[in-house]
Specification:
Domain AB hydrolase-1 (chain B): 58-367
Largest interface: A-B, 22 and 26 residues
Order of helices and strands of chain A: HEHEHEHEHEHHEEHE
Function (chain B): Transfers an acetyl group from acetyl-CoA to L-homoserine, forming acetyl-L-homoserine.
CATH topology of chain A: Rossmann fold
CATH class of the domain at 20-193 and 302-393 in chain B: Alpha Beta
CATH superfamily of the domain at 20-193 and 302-393 in chain B: Alpha/Beta hydrolase fold, catalytic domain
Number of strands of chain B: 14
Strand order of the largest sheet of chain B: 1-4-8-5-11-12-13-14
CATH class of chain A: Alpha Beta
Number of helices of chain B: 10
CATH architecture of chain A: 3-Layer(aba) Sandwich
Number of strands of chain A: 8
Distance between the termini of chain B: 42 Å
Oligomer: heterodimer
Shape of chain B: globular
CATH superfamily of chain A: Vaccinia Virus protein VP39
Helix content of chain A: 25-40%
Protein name (chain A): Methionine biosynthesis protein MetW
Strand order of the largest sheet of chain A: 3-2-1-4-5-8-6-7
Pfam families (chain A): MetW
Number of helices of chain A: 8
CATH topology of the domain at 20-193 and 302-393 in chain B: Rossmann fold
InterPro entries (chain A): Methionine_synth_MetW, SAM-dependent_MTases_sf
Number of domains of chain A: 1
Largest sheet of chain B: 8 strands, mixed
Shape of chain A: globular
Structural class of chain B: alpha/beta
Chain lengths: 215, 394
């Protein structure tokens, strides 16, 4: 895969490469909107973002992005089914209280969803736990156990199993290994669950199966 | 709207400005009102700042709150020490940058700052209208502004912006004239008044009506209902602040004394402040106008526009790109009311941004200098302007 040279964080470069120009994109937990701004300027997408933090929302709007301040779990409900071509949840899944419900909502409002997360199966994480006896602290998971926003620790292998069990389709999957600044990196083809720092998935609803929660 | 006067914070002032007047709807072509009555001739007072592009693509229409006027920025003379009410937002290099945009602000229909209202002379009697003035609505105010825009040769408004009752006009514009609006910023506002807001307005109106000088609205050339109007303003003023703002500003501090007077004089600073605001207000505002405009705000209910079944249907009629901003300490139009609006916009497929600004000054926060608000406004208007340029180039 050819990834354009730019200042965008490496994992976001991978996501950006998957987006069809001119499509409708919503970024959940979009932060200061660097990915959305890139997609708007380079790929002419019609963008929307949801972000909780006021200061980050102001930054997004300053960039000319359409962003709503609010909780992603709540805000996704207001959009009609199929309102977007892509729903992006970048490095936020590990902070979501009810991932299954959120992914369901994402696949309702979007035709496809992109989910990325730090890979807890990385060898560095495994070794830290094994040798130090402490909960691991890595550049991708840089928090202590008492101040981490990450309440769901998962590996690439976990997410694949999750998709299988919950019945959504993984259309594309890329595992990446990035540098310390996350600005450059490479795609990990061999042993991704052991060697990759991030997993990025493009998922969709299974066409032959109605995927609805039973409640 | 409150009494804030803010001198230059950033950028420069638009300098000396002039109030202008536009008169239309001459009989027999009076303007039809929502109430079924007809009104004409109608005069609107307005001001403009900045330069209109040859293709009229850079118009920002500013809509004022309850007791505001057309004087949004600049000074009337060199000796004028009081600038327009949104001096901190409008000017060269400011949030609404007059180096780029042509800004128009008009006084509302029913007002008393140069526009036709109850204190204007009724051509049929040669006397002020008083209570013979017909009821006007937010929709009527917008209809009159549309006539002004046509007079100025403006077909398409780049951005509408207004707070409080100005925000109601913003929303009304977007659904009443969807083809003429590119984008809209609604600050500290609501789709409809809550019982709380109506209640405060009713108490204020009752205060005016209870003043013996009010005389069923027939007081022009006689003693004015100053006490009633002053009390009405005090009530309004309380709703524009917040518990926190009042605690910080006044606490229980006493005014020019060490101990209680054990009289019904002013003891507390907050009492002195309210009396001062009330006294200042009667110098510039007409009591009947206050009655009519508060009623227009109470009647406003965008969710019922053209008998729509839901606010989602209402916003489906609009074409504008929206930005909605609320303030954390606003208890007159709290954030949940803005969220309802945003929710309806989302459901109807509108392009909308929303931000709740942390501010401790209550409802009035939208009038006060706030870098975050300035950045939001600048970013939003600039991006819309850029997008319309792109669209034109396609």
């Amino acid at each position: 895969m050819k990834i354009p040279e730019n200042k965008l964080r490496f994992d976001l470069q991978v996501i950006a490469a998957w987006i069809t120009p001119g499509s409708r994109v919503i970024g959940l937990g979009c932060g200061e909107g660097e990915l959305l701004a890139y997609l708007k300027n380079r790929k002419q997408v019609r963008e929307t973002g949801i972000e909780l933090v006021e200061e980050k929302v102001v930054r997004c709007i300053e960039k000319g992005l359409s962003v709503i301040q609010g909780d992603i779990n709540q805000e996704v409900h207001d959009y009609p089914a199929g309102a977007f071509d892509y729903v992006i949840l970048s490095q936020t899944l590990q902070q979501v209280y009810d991932p299954l419900t959120l992914i369901h909502s994402m696949l309702r409002i979007g035709k496809q969803a992109i989910v990325s997360f730090p890979n807890f199966g990385h060898w560095h994480v495994r070794l830290q736990g094994l040798f130090t006896g402490h909960a691991p602290v890595t550049p991708q998971l840089p928090y202590q156990w008492y101040d981490t926003p990450n309440i769901r620790i998962l590996s690439i292998r976990d997410f694949r199993a999750f998709a299988r069990e919950m019945g959504f389709t993984i259309q594309k999957e890329v595992a990446i290994n990035t540098d310390k600044q996350d600005k450059s990196g490479r795609i990990v083809a061999a042993l991704p669950n052991l060697r990759a720092t991030y997993g990025i998935f493009l998922i969709s609803r299974k066409k032959d199966r109605l995927w609805e929660p039973t409640t | 709207m409150s009494e804030y006067i803010t001198h230059d914070q950033s950028g420069r002032s638009v300098g000396i400005v002039e109030k202008q007047f536009f008169t239309f709807a001459h009989p027999p072509n009076e303007m039809p009102l929502d109430s079924g009555a007809r009104l004409g001739p109608i005069t609107l007072a307005y001001e403009t700042y900045g330069t209109l592009n040859p293709d009229c693509s850079n118009v920002v229409l500013v809509l004022h709150a309850l007791t505001g006027d057309s004087h949004a920025a600049g000074y009337y003379s060199k000796d004028d020490d009081k600038p327009g009410w949104w001096e901190n937002m409008i000017g060269p290099g400011k949030g609404i940058d007059t180096d780029h945009y042509f800004v128009v602000c008009s006084n509302v229909l029913g007002g008393c700052m140069g526009s036709t209202g109850p204190c204007a002379v009724n051509p049929q009697t040669g006397m002020p209208y008083g209570m013979d003035f017909p009821f006007v609505t937010i929709g009527d105010m917008v209809r009159a502004q549309k006539a002004l825009m046509e007079h100025l040769g403006i077909d398409r408004i780049l951005c509408l912006i207004g707070g409080s009752m100005g925000g109601m006009q913003v929303l009304q514009w977007c659904v009443q004239y969807p083809e003429n609006v590119c984008s809209a910023i609604a600050l500290a506002t609501t789709m409809r008044h809550s019982a709380l807001s109506i209640a405060f307005n009713e108490v204020a109106r009752q205060a005016i009506a209870a003043d013996p000088n009010w005389n069923q609205g027939d007081y022009y050339g006689k003693k004015q209902p100053d006490v009633g109007l002053s009390v009405a303003r005090m009530i309004g003023h309380i709703t524009y602040l917040s518990d926190e703002a009042m605690r910080r500003k006044f606490g229980r501090r006493l005014q020019d004394k060490e101990d209680f007077s054990y009289q019904f004089d002013v003891d507390f600073q907050v009492e002195s402040y309210l009396r001062h605001q009330g006294a200042k207000f009667v110098e510039r505002f007409d009591a009947n106008s206050f009655l009519y405009i508060t009623k227009a705000a109470d009647y406003f209910d965008l969710t019922r526009f053209r008998r729509a079944d839901s606010p989602v249907t209402v916003f489906s009629a609009s074409r504008a790109k929206f930005m909605v901003v609320s303030f954390t300490s606003d208890w007159l139009y709290p954030t949940y009311q803005s969220r309802e609006m945003v929710q309806a916009m989302k459901k109807s497929g509108r392009d909308v941004s929303f931000c709740e600004i942390e501010a401790e000054w209550g409802h009035d926060a939208f009038l006060l200098p706030n870098q975050r608000l300035t950045n939001l406004v600048r970013g939003f208007i600039d991006s819309v302007y850029e997008d319309t340029g792109k669209q034109a180039a396609l």
